[in-house]
Amino acid sequence: MFAILQLTVAVMAILFAGWPAFLFLLLQSGLAICLLHVTNYLQHYGLMRMETGPGQYEKVNTHHAWSSPGSGKDFSLFQLENHADHHIHPNRRYEELVKHEESPVQPTGYSGMLLLALIPPLWFQAMNKRVNDFTS
Q1: Where would you tag: which of 9, 21, 80, 95 has the fewest CB atoms within 10 A of its CB?
Q2: What is the pTM of this model?
Q3: What are the helix and strand counts (H, E) for the chain?
């Protein structure tokens, strides 16, 4: 179903706006996919669930996702900074997500973290100590 929808959007872009619009659509889609993966990396870097038995792991909790510093009221990111609460309440609406004080905290907000992730030596310098401090 979604493949048909995507194909329809692509054909409409070509028909109504030409090939440059289609190429822009491809570029925008690729960028969106990259941002999704980088954001997932930012939210979970270095945090692991402990194995409780063969092939069984501890329940997902607040300490399995990074929180972002700030008030937690930034709806421009759809409460992304409260991602840890999503781990506990996956069906909770984004505007109802709350900050958990026991969650590890990133050194900066998502814009800064995105830029930091694009420079791996700086990323590892900033994050590995935080991971070690939190997991030990």
Answers
A1: 95
A2: 0.77
A3: 5, 2
